[in-house]
Amino acid sequence: MAFLDIEQVVFTYAGRSPVVNGVDWRMQAGDFHCLLGRSGCGKTTLLQLAAGLLRPQSGRIVLSGGELAAPGPQLGFMFQAPTLLDWHRVLGNVLLPVSLQRKPTPQDEARALQLLRQLGLAAHAHDYPRQLSGGQQSRVALARALILEPPLLLLDEPFAALDAITRAELQDDLLRTCRELGTTVLFVTHDINEAVYLGDRIALMQGGRIVDDIAITLPAPRTQALRHGPAFNEICARVRACMDRASA
Amino acid sequence: MNPTPLQARIMSAALFLVLLGLWELAVRQWGLSALVLPAPSAVAAALWTGLASGYFWPHIAATLQALVLGLAAGGLIGLFAGMALAESALLERVLKPYVVVSQVVPKLALAPLFVLWFGFGLLPTVLITALICFFPLMENTLTGLRQVDAQRLQLFRMLGATRLQTLLRLKLPTGLPAILAGLRVAVVLALVGVVVAEFMGASQGLGAVVIAAQGMMDTTLMFAALVIIAAIGLLLYQACIVLERRLLRAHAFPTSPSARSRANL
């Protein structure tokens, strides 16, 4: 039984052609899948459907327990921008998912501080978001998405606005943290390099459909050195060729 | 060369003294009657006598009481009305025309009517002040709460926040700078409202003092009352700024030079 099961999902905004047009996709627990495609191919909409923020017109999205996807603390979500609350300190931002459910306990705080330490932000726990760099803000957003240890993490191009070096660091942080927690991850990106480096599998999306399913056979855990090896570049070239073929 | 804030303050104070000096000089030079324009020294003397003898204090207390009550009532109602209208599009469509009509009627023109209805004294003054304070707070709350960006709203939906949580923990903090700007406007308008309302319907208060002084042809006393009104206005405005600094310390824009330099690191 799949952990996340997307069955024949169609989504249309009123009076337009379908944005997501009959998508089937399955994820096993602990998988790290990337949803790759050009801007406007429907990948963000599909992610919002998986999060339960949108309801499909037909088809359904089922989680392991058999319930339909719905927003809530069982899901971690990361947006394109860090979307932190300026009036809370870093610690308060990380604890937001907790404090919306109940009063945070000392254990919650210890957990948040530990996450911040893992992400190299221990010294910034009591700063305000505006005092941090873009990469640090993204790390805070990642810690916030992980604080409740959600079984499923959905990410919508979270590192798109960062410089290449910071992005690489954050990719490693993400991989390591999710491996430690056993989180299942669906990662949306338009960057072939990023998709190949992060994913076990890539779903190639085009015009509202998944047109290709590419398994990535790179050794895990990934390291930055991998990027310069022939195997990595060969896979990138193959994915690129698939994208070109799909759009031709 | 850019003057420092301290230098700018000194320049401002010096300008004040120069203007006072010119005024004093003009009055003495041309021998103007105190009925037309009393000299600053005479106003200062009247002010001191009034304060020392205790004549002004009950009037100051009455004006402040009406001001605080009116500001609190009008401000709170405005805040809650703004929140309700921001939360419910239906409520906004139904009620907004009435709110606008209530505001385009010149409220000070209602003073005689309120005196007719509620008699002389505190109540009509408070009501007019409240009516004046209501609008800037409602309008700014409405605008402020709408400034929340879509992604933050989605974040709160994603985290399973209730509507009340979204209002209290996302929309209100986002709108706080706008709400406080509304309060600042309301405070200044409220003082004008209290004084003018006291012109018509009060036996106590600084507005009543101005009218009494006019009746006694005591222009010096009138000026002394005006000085006190101006001082109250300045103090209230300053209090608003202090309140803003305290409440908005954590907000996006840096409020102090040290915060700014740290943000740039």
Topology of this structure?
The complex is a heterodimer of chains A (248) and B (265).
Chain A: E1 4-11, E2 20-27, E3 32-36, H1 43-51, E4 58-63, E5 75-78, H2 90-94, H3 96-99, H4 106-118, H5 134-146, E6 152-156, H6 164-181, E7 184-189, H7 192-198, E8 201-206, E9 209-215, H8 230-247
Parallel strand pairs in A: 3-7, 3-8, 5-6, 6-7
Antiparallel strand pairs in A: 1-2, 1-4, 8-9
Helix pairs in contact in A: 5-6, 7-8
Chain B: H1 5-30, H2 40-53, H3 56-87, H4 89-104, H5 111-118, H6 122-145, H7 150-158, H8 163-201, H9 206-215, H10 219-247, H11 257-263
Describe this structure in words.
The complex is a heterodimer of chains A (248) and B (265). Chain A has eight helices and nine strands. With 248 residues, chain A is an alpha/beta fold. In chain A, helix 5 packs parallel to helix 6 and helix 7 packs across helix 8. Chain B has a domain of 149 residues: Orthogonal Bundle (MetI-like fold), CATH 1.10.3720.10. Chain B contains eleven helices and no strands. Chain B is globular, with a radius of gyration of 23 Å. The C terminus of chain B is likely disordered. At the A-B interface, loops of A face helix 7, helix 8 and helix 11 of B.
